Amino acid sequence: MAHSIRISYSACHGCVNCIKSCPTEAIRVIAGSITIIRDLCVDCGECLRACDRKALGLDDDDWDLIRAHGEVDAITDPTFFAQFSSYWHPERAREALLGNGINMLFDDVEDAFDLSAYATARMIEGMSKDQLPLISIYCPAVVRLIQLEFPELLSRLILIENPLEIAAEMWRKRTKSFAPLTLISPCPAKITMVRDPVGNQPSSIQHVVSMKKVVHTLMASGVKVSSDSPGLDLEGRRFAEWARRGGESKHILKFSKRDLRIIAVSGLRNTMDLLEQLELGRLRGVDFVECRTCDIGCFGGIAVAESRFLSHMKHRNIETDWALMPERAEQLDAMLANEKLWKMNEPIPSKQRLPLSSDLSEAMSRLKQMKAVFAELPHIDCGACGRPSCKAMAEDVAREQGEITDCIFKLREDISSLASQIISLADLQPNALKRIQPGKNIKVNAQRG
């Protein structure tokens, strides 16, 4: 399983801040060296936020190398248009891109997001109450989190391709082009979405770069934009709302033929709490759930250039036209009929954690050992052993990837026990040197030959 986190081993000081932030316990810090278990990483980016040593970073493609091959055809996440501190009007962003040889697939992105919302609304309307709520798949980190931690909810993931992928496929069908496409991503999760998609294989996008890198390049190039250029007008563009929490839900609600009960949350803790509540069956009567692992939605992605608060403020000034005109509805109905364009072929599978052993009898033996080791540990999940929890520590010991004395508390117990033994041994004397205390007789058993 691919992921998009790059490790700088020389920068790591073994502070273990990252292991406590990971929701799937995918990180170990042993002997001052970070290890990420790829099959457990969901690319939420929380470890990057926790690391102030810059030992963790984004593993995206080389933007300068991509640009060196000529004009770039790019798909941008909706968060892109609020990233320019000097361009207060989003319509200037397109001119800045074109001035740097970047052709943005704007119309295809608009169609793809409309189609995704339209298809979701139709799916919800055609389902019974016991099949609801459906869960958004727009945040790839949420999808992977469900695969690993909440497999019982996989049947509720809506089987629609990510609209960014749909836009890429639309562009290829419209232009008949096989030129490489580049996604400008606000987070590591969308980088992995391109490299290891969970839907139809393979991705229609070839390259992916961080939004921060692209924006900084544009700003450093000193691009001049004319004040009277029509540029890119986002007024009325519904897809721009997906950049913030609740934007996708509102888009679906406006395209629905009946009232929908929708819950939208952002932030990793809120997302996990909501999924736990859903798994326990406590969200009856809800039709759709939108989760984003980043705070305030995609504006909070670790790869954005602008402050998420400032971006959110700018975005609120954009007026959105939610009216679905009859001719537009006919266009979307025609797109909806082509299920190969937007629908996933198969349900999203679960991601199994690594077994303790491929041999069943050995796996059972190791499981017994793991439980025994876990029972001896203090159960305080301090992280001093380089593992995120005592349970992870016990599992590593059972896998022969650690010793129980990696736990500082067990090590102290062993040292204390050894010290007590040393003190006891220090008080002992050789039998020949022992003095007879007054009033005591020594019995000697003589053995006759």
Secondary structure blueprint with pairings:
Blueprint: E1 5-7, H1 17-21, E2 27-30, E3 33-36, H2 46-50, E4 56-58, H3 63-68, E5 72-76, H4 91-99, E6 102-104, H5 106-125, E7 134-135, H6 140-149, H7 163-175, E8 181-185, H8 188-195, E9 207-210, H9 211-220, H10 247-255, E10 262-266, H11 268-279, E11 288-292, H12 308-315, H13 326-337, H14 339-342, H15 360-376, H16 390-398, H17 408-427
Parallel strand pairs: 5-6, 5-8, 7-11, 8-9, 10-11
Antiparallel strand pairs: 1-4, 2-3
Helix pairs in contact: 5-7, 5-10, 15-16
| Number of H- or I-type helical stretches | 17
Q: DSSP strand (E) fraction?
A: 5-15%
How many structural units, i.e. domains? 3
Order of helices and strands: EHEEHEHEHEHEHHEHEHHEHEHHHHHH
Runs in which pLDDT lies below 50 for 5 or more consecutive residues are 227-232
What Rg is obtained from the alpha carbons, in whole angstroms? 29 Å
Q: Overall 3D geometry?
A: elongated
